[in-house]
Amino acid sequence: MRIKSEFCFLLLFVYILIYGVPCSSQNIIEYTINRNIRGIDSLLKADPSCVHQTDERGASALHYAAWFGDTISAELLLKNGAKIDHQDNTSSTPLVWAVYNRKDIMSEFLLNHDADIKWHDRGSNNLLHLATSYGMTHLMELFLEKGMKVNEGNKYSVTPLHIAASINSAVMARALLNHGADPSLVCSSGKNAFHCATDYESDSVLMILKSIMKEPGEIKFPDLYGEYLGMKIPDTIPELFAPGLLITPFFIHGQIAFSENLEEMVWSDNAQPVTRIWYLRMEDGKWTVPAPMPFSEDFYSAAPYFSADGKRLYFYSTRPEKPGGDTLRTIWYVERENDSWSQPVRVSVPGWESKFIGFPSFSKKGNLFFYSNDQENNLGFCDVYISEFKNGSFSKPENPGVFVNSPSEDLEPAISPDENYMVFSSTRQDNIQNNIELYVSFKKPDGSWTPATNLGSTVNRGRTWRPYITPDGRFLFYNSDHTGIYEYFWVSTDIIKNLRQKYFTE
């Protein structure tokens, strides 16, 4: 279960490699990153108090030793008084850093030095959840021996056994069951471990569960009726969409999408070992139980998007075009075949056959909007691009220019159905929180785009990205982590109409 914190830790590592460590660290953190034992020892002898120094993230040298799995530096730091349970700005200890970076030996080293295991992230995941999701069997067993509660659920009642069942780890499932894991417990989407194993075709775990469960029980997914799953319709104040109902048991990943008639919904989760696309539809006025799309089970698949006529489902995926071929990071589609879907077909975009094309969005005209970091004329690290649909094929993509793209990252455009505006995520410097946030750019009568406008603090709370505009143009969906995990929020597009009116009347 790759939750949002893993992505944040990856960004942290990239930041360190590019920019180094802030000067306030006075080199002990830099020495630790470089595994300069002599340098660390020299600094500690000159000034023993430097062992407690932290950087702008609140992390100590021991955090970095834990991240890189450097037990030699960690031993030296601990002998000189480093606090083993010091928390950084996100309340994460060195042990948490070690687990996030899958450092088994370091994690065990810290446990042997009595590191505290009473930690939860903002989504109520504990260290047992993390170790299970990362397949760290030995560490999971150590946590169980330390007395961690085997049946403790996270924010949406996902237990470690749900996770082990979904990743088909028979070894972990047996260990959890031997420590008293209850296979009948259900998460917020109404599924127990047996249901999770069934969804992910985890045959090894299914054999174990069948031997101990007389009946798997019914999925306790709630009865949902009406458009948008019958959820409360939001106004210009964003609302959480279907909280807990889309847990698979992994958290969401990528944008949500609806068919033109609003009777089908797709999204992707953050499953291990590959992200998958999930689907539900309305039958006789009632929404079905969520199920995974069969074509997404073997390769990373995310960011689904229905064509306007509903005959195709586009999505981003990393997969070869032919068995044994090179892996392509691009957009694919499947075609509807009665009640099933075809095999994936690569979308042909002129000049971009081997380039990265990410997270598609389509207007009713069929024009394609996407982002890429694989083009020489990028204005920033990632840029938004537009490919017009003409005579049954896509044209060579064009960069909409400096009013949309910036020297930073500009990602995941969501085009309105009438193509009058696009919403996209960006890390540009004028954002509100020094984070990734949503912006809007309006299309002028001459076809050019207005300077991007931040959607404001009502929408941009925490890491906010992966927007989607519904086919009826009424709502903006997006991902945000300000509740502690990534969840879908939605809001009336009146907030965008108000910004448009303000922009064109000033």
Notes on the structure:
There is one protein chain. The longest helix has 16 residues, at 4-19. This protein has 506 residues and is of the alpha+beta class. Helices cover 25% and strands 23% of the residues. It is globular, with a radius of gyration of 24 Å. A hairpin with a 5-residue loop joins strand 7 and strand 8. Helix 4 (61-68) packs antiparallel against helix 5, helix 10 runs antiparallel to helix 11 (170-178) and helix 10 runs parallel beside helix 12. Among the domains are: 1-115, Ankyrin repeat-containing domain (Serine Threonine Protein Phosphatase 5, Tetratricopeptide repeat), CATH 1.25.40.20; 117-217, Alpha Horseshoe (Serine Threonine Protein Phosphatase 5, Tetratricopeptide repeat). Strands 2, 3, 4, 5 and 6 form a five-stranded antiparallel sheet that branches. Strands 7, 8, 9, 10 and 11 form a five-stranded antiparallel sheet that branches.
What are the SSEs and their pairings?
Blueprint: H1 4-19, H2 28-33, H3 37-46, H4 61-68, H5 71-79, H6 94-100, H7 104-112, H8 127-133, H9 137-145, H10 160-166, H11 170-178, H12 193-199, H13 203-212, E1 239-240, E2 252-258, E3 264-269, E4 277-283, E5 286-287, E6 291-292, E7 300-306, E8 312-320, E9 327-337, E10 340-341, E11 345-346, E12 358-362, E13 368-372, E14 383-387, E15 389-390, E16 393-394, E17 410-415, E18 421-426, E19 437-442, E20 453-454, E21 464-469, E22 475-480, E23 487-492, H14 494-505
Antiparallel strand pairs: 1-23, 2-3, 3-4, 4-5, 4-6, 7-8, 8-9, 9-10, 9-11, 12-13, 13-14, 15-16, 17-18, 18-19, 19-20, 21-22, 22-23
